[in-house]
Amino acid sequence: MTAESATPAHSAPHAAPPAPWWSAVPPASGSIVMATGIVSIGLFVAGFDTLSKILMGIDIAVWLLLAAAFVTRAFRDPHGWKTAADTPPALTAVAATTVLGTRLALFGWTHTAYALLAIAALAWPMLLGGVARHLGHRMPGAVFLVCVATQGLAVLAGQLALLGEGEWLAWAALVLFALGLVLYAVVLTRFDIRQIRTGAGDHWVAGGALAISAVAGSKLVASPVWKGTAHDILRTTTLVVLGVALGWYIVLAVAEIAYPRLRYDIRRWATVFPLGMTAAACLLVSAAAHVAWLDTVGRVLLWIAFPVWALVGVGLVRSLAGPARARFG
Could you tell me how far CA 104 lies from the centroid of its own chain? Predict the structure, then answer.
């Protein structure tokens, strides 16, 4: 009898307990809410109300799940939470909340949208400050979330102002819009341009940040607060920003064809978000700035964004099904 066979069965080492569910949720998961929310908004603006509502329901459910993970980790693992909060993907928490809030405002749930604006506004300076202190050089596309989170606040504030929730919200949106553009210029110098060829999906946020800036601009252009020269300046600025966003779209799309990246990655949701945001920007700017042909462009881009959203969603389900089969099957 060998030493191994003489060892009692009960003395075998126990398997490590499974990690808590909330620890397996990366900060970048907020991009799922961002992507789903903006595609839902685009579908709503384009007149596909039922499909838009389905995506809105999915968005609400995912946001609640991620919010539970965010809060639970903050209490159970404060050190890990703080470490994650200092990275750019943490800003998806702010951006996701504002995108969902904007969709709910369009649905008529203005009180809920107001509450989400308050949550995002409270989290924004804390997360932005942590990320700003840890900015480096040659960073991935997630660095543009510094701009996206700021412009997300501008979009939601501007939307609520248009719904008659207070003129002060329009002024807040204007300040945030300007600040977001400044932040974009700052982080552009930190972006590693090689990510266009090698990025795993979040490199698209380089264009998506300008697309959401254009959406914020559309809310300002549509506002009755600014007239005459002020309105003309806002309109021109918004059209220029949208034009650069469309330029990014073309460059990034060509890079996807030249350098295919077909494997699923959580950062692919950060590809869907700019696709949907650029489509929504064209639709919204078309209406606000009275540029009819942008509506056609927006509808074409929307029917690129929606299938990609579905495809990446399938990738997410398959990535979650693998560990589940290993655990239970």
Answer: 16
